[in-house]
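To: structure desk
From: M.T.
Subject: fold request, one chain
Message: Could you run this one when you get a chance? Sequence is below, nothing fancy, just the single chain.
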Amino acid sequence: MSSPVKTKATEWGPRLGTIGFAVFMVLYGAELWPWPEALAYWPNQFLGRHIGGWRIALNVAVVIAFLGFLPYSRATRDVWRSRGLYSAFALALMTEMLGWPLIAYLLSPVTHLSSDPYPHGAHWPHVVGTAISFLGLVLVYFGWRRIHTAAGLVTDGLYSWIRHPQYTGISLFALGWAVHFHTWLTWMLLIPMTLAYVSLARAEEEAALDEFGQAYEEYASRTKGFIPLVV
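Reply: Done. C-alpha cells follow.
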C-alpha cells in the first residue's frame, strides 16, 4: 500500500482520530475490567444523567472520528460511499441503542420505565464486542502510523501480513458494535459497509498497480488482502 499525500486534511484527521480513541477508551474501556456489571457502564450512565440526548451526538462523533486514521489519497466515489455507509452505521447504532434509554429516562418518573442504558441481556456480548472493537482500532491505528511515516510502497509491519489492515480494522470495529448491541439494524448496515470497503480496497489496488507495477504485483501475490492466510 502506498502512503497518502500529506495535506491539512490528512494532518487534522489523525488528531481527531486520536481524540476519538481516547474518549472511546474512557466511555467503553470500563467494560473490559472484571468488576460487577453494574460498574461496567458507569461513564455512559453518568453522561446519560448529565447531558441527556447530547450523549448520542458524542458517541456518534467519537465513532466517526476514527475515519481520520484512514489514509485516503484522493476523495473518489468509493471513498465517499464507504465514509457515508460507516457514518450511517454509527448514527443508526447510537440513535437506536442510546435513544431508547434516553426516552425511558425522561419518562421514568411517570411510567417507571428503566433508564438503564444496557437493559437487554447478559454482560458477555458487551465485553466480547468491545474487545473486538478495540482490536479493530489497534489495526487502524498502527496501520495509519506505518503509512503516515512512510514514503512509497509499504510492505512491512502489519502490511507484511495483510494489504489492507486499516479496512480490516474498521470492519472489525463495526463488527464489535454489532456483537455488543446485537440488533438487526446494525447487522443489516454492517454488510453493505464492509462490501464498500472491499470495493474501495480493490480500487486502491488498481491505482497502486499502475503506480508501482511489478513491485506491487509481487507484493499482492504473496500477501493476503484482509485476513492473514485466508483472503
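Reply (cont.): Residues 77-111 form the longest helix (35 residues). Let me know if you need anything else for the meeting.
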